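agent> step 3/5: call structure_predict on target 'Sulfotransferase domain-containing protein' (marine sediment metagenome).
agent> reason: downstream docking stage needs a structural representation; sequence fetched in step 2, passing through unchanged.
tool.input:
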Amino acid sequence: MNDIGTGVRRTLEQPSSPLRKAVVRHARASPWRSHHEETGSLYIHIPRTAGGSIVEALYDSRERGHTPLYSYAYTNPELTSRLFVFSFVRNPWDRIVSAYH
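tool.output (status=ok):
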């Protein structure tokens, strides 16, 4: 497992961890979909980065939402470590200008 995955797993194993409490509170259903294993990838959607369009183009899926990486790592750490995990970020200055106009 990579260093990030190991760190997340260790943090989630601590019962008093605020991260663990947040995961348990938000992990209502499994975030995993068949397209994750089929493509070998996991896209983490960051708000306001055209993530819905990216998910539709990559996975031919119309699902919406912003599931954080820790939810995937908590529910299936082995699969999380095997997949290519990626995300896109937006230039903060462009986002501020966009919000203003």
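agent> step 4/5: record observation. DSSP finds seven helices and two strands in the chain.
agent> proceeding.
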